[in-house]
Write a structure and sequence with these properties.
578 residues, 17% strand, three-stranded antiparallel beta sheet, globular, 17 helices, lyase, 20 strands, alpha/beta
């Protein structure tokens, strides 16, 4: 009797429970909807139909671990696990790329110190992910990128403040005397006085008077802002959540990124970024004389599909490397040939000959971009750039040299870091002189993204566009915000691959989703770089198949014709570097 009563009670509770969740109603809807279709896998189709009523997946935990990047350096991998239909499931992972500012041929002790700092940073990042961030992000929907990045940003800001507090306490313990010395060191030296030549010829019987002229020294190099130990955890977690969100929504990451940027409004067409394919890496410390050029890159014309059909594919995509084999010294970590030249003309003429031998005409079938990396050319004793061994030019002379170069070689349509970021007047001059026919792009000449977040009125130089790199504490939301500002100020966006690239292909999806004009990935060698070119091919094929591929355009800005000088766009900060 008691057993029967218990069973009846359970039946009533079950009926109430299922009615409360509208199960009978939903089952009837599903059966009515599926019967006309008579699906081959009835239970699979029932599962699909009812799954839309299930709870949204939420993050259950994060897993951080130490792995190695494409050049064998330690970096961070972040895995995302979610609770999906009551079960924990691994959704995706991401591996962060790393960037080092250690110069070529650095001293052994400098390299050793950098390696120790890198190892410490990765170890700290793994701890942040596995402990604090995993707990803070638990139960958050991975599709809520804004909330995730807000939590990550607040966590990082607290870490920065904590570090400042520790440094402040350490300074206090060192005593007032050391503090005074540090403050004195921060005081800028007075402008140097130099003797100039006589301003006029002396009259007969008289003597020419030497005049003391105040000469303003060149601005000193701004010190690189050090990355906070463990900052990889922020960028790695943000990107992993973006990938998880795309996976949960069953859409590619590039479309998920575009939806995030455009407030969930799906674009009807998307433009592929043009690849900047690094062909040559010119060593500045080689026995050859030329120091002005760090990288030589090929840019295809906009009408040429990246996936060129037919037998000409191989010719269009990389045989120029074979034509330059006599200059070969080895393969760079950038996935290209390492070489050196004695003059700029020698380099550019050999590029022309190599392309002509392959049936390619520079300026029609292919264009060139040069990465000058001018920040590494300045001789601060002479206050001039050393463009060739023993040949020096002032910032103003550099501008004149670039104008002559572009006029002589019009197939060069982009210069990256032609000047240091501190030479702001010359940036304005070169943009006015060349901006209508050549992109003047800031990479290392741009400032850190952290300064953009704290000071919207930062005063930096004029340029055509900025190379952005996804490293350290950069978040997906940061790139979305920054590219939106760049778009509004007629700048172009270039997403760049750092030196320590990983096998993760997400950078390509981000570039497509953000609407970047160019994608700077290095050469067509090394697996971690080729994987990204292959991903670009796959996206192009998918967009073309869906009728959503829009042709890119090469549009320059004529800075000289801007009516209001104060309206000229400024260089916006790029992601912070190690």
């Amino acid at each position: 009797m008691e057993a029967a009563a218990r069973l009846a009670r359970l039946r009533r509770e079950a009926a109430e429970y299922y009615r409360g969740h509208r199960v009978p109603e939903r089952m009837e809807e599903a059966l009515n909807a599926l019967f006309p279709l008579c699906p081959e896998d009835l239970y699979g189709e029932l599962a699909n139909y009812l799954s839309k009523f299930s709870k949204a997946p939420v993050i259950s935990r994060l897993v951080g671990r130490k792995v190695f990047d494409g050049v064998g350096q330690p970096t961070l991998e972040v895995e995302i696990y979610c609770t999906v239909k009551n079960y924990e499931k691994r959704i995706c992972s991401t591996v962060m790329a790393t960037h080092s500012q250690i110069p070529e041929h650095a001293l052994p002790e400098t390299i050793e110190a950098d390696e120790k700092e890198r190892n410490d940073s990765v170890h700290t990042a793994v701890e942040w992910v596995n402990e604090s961030l995993s707990s803070m992000l638990r139960d958050l929907e991975p599709t809520d990128q804004c909330q995730a990045d807000k939590i990550l940003g607040e966590y990082f800001a607290n870490k920065v403040e904590g570090k400042k507090e520790i440094e402040k306490q350490e300074e206090g313990q060192e005593g007032e005397e050391k503090q005074e010395e540090e403050e004195a060191a921060k005081v800028a030296p007075a402008p140097a006085l130099r003797h100039s030549a006589p301003t006029s010829k002396p009259k007969k019987g008289g003597k020419g008077k030497k005049v003391l002229v105040e000469v303003t020294p060149i601005p000193p190099a701004e010190p690189a802002e050090p990355a906070l130990c463990g900052s990889l955890a922020i960028g790695g977690t943000s990107l992993a959540i973006a990938k998880a969100g795309a996976t949960i929504l069953h859409i590619p990451l590039y479309l998920h990124t575009a939806l995030l940027k455009h407030n969930q409004e799906a674009p009807k067409e998307m433009t592929l970024p043009l690849p900047m394919v690094t062909l040559l890496n010119c060593e500045k410390n080689s026995p050859t004389k030329l120091k002005l050029v760090k990288e030589v890159m090929l840019i295809p014309p906009v009408e040429l599909s990246f996936k060129q059909p037919g037998p000409q594919t191989d010719i269009k995509k990389g045989k120029a490397q074979k034509a330059l084999a006599p200059a070969l010294k080895g393969m760079s970590h950038l996935g290209c040939l390492t070489t050196g030249y004695d003059s700029l003309e020698q380099l550019l003429l050999q590029m022309q000959i190599a392309c002509n031998n392959l049936g390619l005409e520079l300026g029609k079938d292919m264009y060139l971009a040069l990465n000058c990396a001018a920040h590494g050319l300045m001789d601060y004793g002479k206050e001039k750039y050393e463009i060739l061994t023993g040949t020096f030019k002032s910032p103003d002379e550099m501008v004149a040299m670039y104008v002559e170069m572009i006029n002589k070689f019009p197939f060069i349509i982009a210069l990256i870091d032609p000047l240091r970021k501190e030479d702001r007047e010359q940036w304005s001059s070169i943009c006015c002189a060349l901006g209508s026919k050549c992109y003047l792009i800031a990479e290392d000449a741009a400032t850190q993204i952290s300064k953009l977040k704290t000071d919207q009125n930062i005063n930096v130089a004029t340029c055509s566009g900025v190379v952005l790199k996804y490293i350290n504490q950069t978040k997906v939301s940061d790139l979305i915000e920054l590219t939106g500002i760049l778009d509004g100020q007629r700048h172009i966006t270039i997403l760049g691959s750092p030196d320590g690239e990983s096998s993760d292909e997400s950078l390509v999806d981000l570039a497509v989703g953000l609407g970047a004009r160019f994608l700077k990935l290095g050469g067509l060698s090394r697996g971690e770089r080729v994987a990204k070119y292959n991903r670009l091919l796959a996206i192009e094929e998918e967009l073309a198949a869906n009728g959503a591929l829009r042709e890119a355009k090469l549009e320059f800005v004529d800075f000289a014709e801007e009516s209001q000088p104060e309206q000229l766009p400024d260089v916006l900060p790029a992601p912070e570097q190690d």
